[in-house]
Amino acid sequence: MKTFGENLKEIRQSCKLSQKKFAELMNTSQQRVSEWETNKVEPTLYNIIKMTKILNVTFEDLIENISL
Fold this sequence. Notes:
globular, 434 Repressor (Amino-terminal Domain)
């Protein structure tokens, strides 16, 4: 099983986006992206929706095989 953060990192990297570039597109800090990817902080629903648009994925892609 994976975590949301692991899925996010994998998808971000497959889109060839650095944490810095992704943070810029998300209008947040690189530190916040790191916190999401290491599961220290959960993104808001607004940010999850924004992620799906930036990464061109579905919500299901982001939560695929995660353990709750």
